Amino acid sequence: MIILPATKSIVFRLQLNGCTHPKSKAIEPFGKDIQSQTAGAGQYQLHKSLFFQKSILPIRVKALHLSELYNNHRFIDVCRKTQTCLSSGTTNQTQWKLNASVGRYFKTPIYTVLGFRDLEGNFLNRDSKYIRSDHYVAGVEFLPTPSTRFTVESFYKRYANYPVSARDGISLANQGGEFGAIGNEQVESSGRGRAYGAEFFFQQKLTKKLFAVFSYTFVCSEFTGLDGETYIPSAWDNRHLVSALLGRKFSRGWELGLKYRFAGGVPYTPFDSEASRRNYLSLGTGVLDYSRLNTQRLPVFSQFDFRVDKKWNWRRFTLDLFLDVQNAFLTPGPTLPAYTFGRTEDNSRFASADGRPLQLDGSNAIPLILDQGDATVLPTIGFIIEF
């Protein structure tokens, strides 16, 4: 029996590397070891490896059993994660690999949820459940040369016990930057979610003074509210993600690096025109229309960066002088729109549609939706000395 302090957890992991070829003969395991090591808040690992002759179908199985105890000595949860990976190919150089994995994970809610108190100092979210997520991943990998890799993967993730606002019934995953501090309220652990998509990845390692990396991901991310039925795009439902990196080494210590990033517009909730007009003078901001939650999308994000390096190598040290420029094409960054009233030409007061003083309910105001997107370039000049 192992007795641990209440704030520690124990982890056991068993890993097998072998095959099931009908003519293969198991040999005595070499490098077999059982090791226990402390990691973080008292995590322990058990590791054992087995090897076989004539292996053409290596199979790797990982199992993780996690038990956590709370600081009041009350047993909270048991987390099990089982991940199976299968790969097949030739014995000398594998060109094609098939990968698949299944996992179940548990995560505590964010600290703003756990630390929320009412006016009397009571923790209202003390009984919040662990967020559960089930992951399913399958893909194929192709290695045409030792320095080139292509992968295609599909994934599906399912979430349960996700925190939902008890006040307005909106999942915390569907709250973007327009909601202010996220989780600083009473919640219920009744939300569900799902994320699914596919990814293409290409990598060319440094050969002949050139290297490159490219990836494209299509993803859909949706979560439910208190009803647990209607799925709504989450605050990070970009749909399309692109990342590209290209590097080139030249003679005499010159190097050039190029980077490009693209992300589809994230969802946001538009303003309620009438409620915003009536309450703007007292609130100083617009009122969101929850009946159209995350029905609008911001413009796409796009950014191009480059870096130029010049290196001098001496016997005892190397000097690297570089110029790094972020957002070289001055692409405006997407930002949430802002609600306000139009002002007079001299900016001394709010303007009105009828020329009269502004009414308290904003009935004669001139509403404006401001696009706050702005383009910023960030150049950096520096040097690195390596000994």
Morphology call: globular
In the predicted model, the low-confidence regions spanning at least 5 consecutive residues are 1-92
Q: What is the ordering of alpha helices and beta strands?
A: EEEEHEEEEEEEEHEEEEEE
Average pLDDT score: 78
Main sheet: strands, sense, barrel = 11 strands, antiparallel
What count of structural domains? 2
| Total E-strand runs | 18
Report the sheet-strand fraction: over 45%
What's the helical proportion of residues?
under 10%
Indicate the radius of gyration in whole angstroms: 28 Å
What structural class results from the helix and strand content? mainly beta
Measured between the Cα atoms of the first and last residue, the distance is 51 Å
Helical segment count: 2
Structure, explained:
4% of the residues lie in helices and 46% in strands. It is globular, with a radius of gyration of 28 Å. The two termini are 51 Å apart. The model is unreliable at 1-92 (pLDDT under 50). By secondary structure, it is mostly beta strands. The chain contains 2 helices and 18 strands. The protein has 2 domains: 1-72, no CATH class; 73-386, no CATH class.
